[in-house]
Amino acid sequence: MTGELPHPEADLPRMTLSEHLDELRRRLFISVIGIVVSMVVAFFWHVEIWDFAQGPYHVAQVAAGIDPPKNLMGTGPGEGFFQALKLCFLVGLVVCGPLVIWQLWGFIAAGLYPHERKYVRIFFPISLLLFGLGLVASYKILIPFGLRFLIGFDANLGVDPTYKADEYLSTMIRMTIAMGFVFLLPLIMLFLQAVDIVRRETFKKGWRWAVVLSVVLGMFLTDPSPVTQIMMAIPVVGLYFMGIWGGKFVGEGGERFRWYKAWPIVLGLGVFIAMIVYSQELNDLMAQAFPSGGEAATEAPTEGVPETPGSGPGSAPGSGG
Questions:
Q1: Residue 12 domain-assigned?
Q2: 158 belongs to a structural domain
Q3: Per the domain annotation, does 149 fall within a domain?
Q4: Continuous H helices in 10-78
Q5: Alpha-carbon distance 89 to 94, whole Å?
Q6: Per-range mean pLDDT, top range of 48-57, 109-118, 153-162
Q7: pLDDT at 229
Q8: Phi, psi of 310 (to 5 degrees)
Q9: Are 271 and 132 contacting, i.e. CB atoms less than 8 angstroms apart?
Q10: Which of 92, 113, 227, 311 shows a CA-CA span of 20 to 30 A to 267?
Q11: How many other C-beta atoms can be found within 10 angstroms of the C-beta atom of residue 195?
Q12: Structural domain tally of the chain?
């Protein structure tokens, strides 16, 4: 009896390069088929999806004093059709997101150690939940707040706040996806600390850089509104500190997690729910903090403007002159 310990990778499956490529091809095929099928199914509800995508735009217009709100504008033939296809593809990608991530996990699982697999199994369902919360936060808070500021500012200048469908949807999709990934920040930090790639002390020392980078991130990933930039920077900083807090429970020598130690999670979730429930009141508060003057401009646009000849109530069309 030699007493030799088995190699840590002895129980991992061995695959040749061609077998790896076949496995990758199979999993990519499953992912693509799932996305295409979901996209085709979503197209049967493309009108409802289109109205849903316009929701933040309409909410922002009503909040800025434009009621009834205007619809998006098409500037070329077929723009509505292609933008509807883009939205259906996004819906298919979101619906099949768990399938795609699971196929990716199945491909790389053989190259992970057992303790790394354990963390991925725990973090995978949580990552789906956090990503979904980020999408909700973008749709209910981030986009309407920023659009209200921009629409009010444009109206104050006399600019017609009618947006092109392509530009609006591209901005909305970028901000929504970005917010979803932002909400994964604490989970990524926990994984890096759990596998001892980055130590918790490193994250604690770098909190100032995190604040600066959160502002820069908000500038690049959102629209020009300072409201949306601030609204994205705040959760980035909060989630960064959440990742530092959770780091003391993972890795070697980590504290044992008890339910009563979860108060930061409960507090953060309570704040999030309150912001979603009272999003309209919060939107009004942000409008007071960042006044654009648009509400006043849209309430009485013709006040003090002299009446032109032939525009009186008793004039007939074509009778002026």
A1: no
A2: yes
A3: yes
A4: 17-43, 46-63
A5: 9
A6: 48-57
A7: 82
A8: 85, 5
A9: no
A10: 227
A11: 16
A12: 1
Q: Using the predicted structure, report yes or no on whether residue 88 has a pLDDT greater than 50.
A: yes
Residue 293 reports pLDDT greater than 70 = no
Q: Are 198 and 166 in contact (CB under 8 A)?
A: no
Q: What is the pTM of this model?
A: 0.75
- Euclidean distance between CA atoms 61 and 152, whole angstroms: 8
- CA distance linking residue 210 with residue 237, whole number of Å: 7
State yes or no: pLDDT of 240 exceeds 90: yes
Token readout for 182 is 């932002």
| All residues at 6 or more sequence positions from 112 whose CB lies less than 8 Å from its CB, including other chains | 120
The mean of the pLDDT values for the chain is 79
200: exposed, middle or buried (C-beta count within 10 Å: 0-12, 13-18, 19+)?
Answer: buried
Q: At what angle do helices 143-156 and 226-246 cross, to 10 degrees?
A: 160
Work out the average pLDDT over 123-148.
86
Whether 123 contacts 190, CB under 8 Å: yes
1 in any annotated domain = no
Q: Which string of DSSP letters, residue by residue, matches 74-119?
A: --STTHHHHHHHHHHHHHHHHHTHHHHHHHHHHHHGGGS-HHHHHH
Closest CA to 203 of 230, 243, 263: 243
How is residue 285 written in tokens? 């508060």
Give the domain range for residue 38.
17-294
What whole-number distance in Å separates Cα of residue 95 and Cα of residue 282?
30
Q: Look at residue 48 in the predicted model and tell me its pLDDT.
A: 92
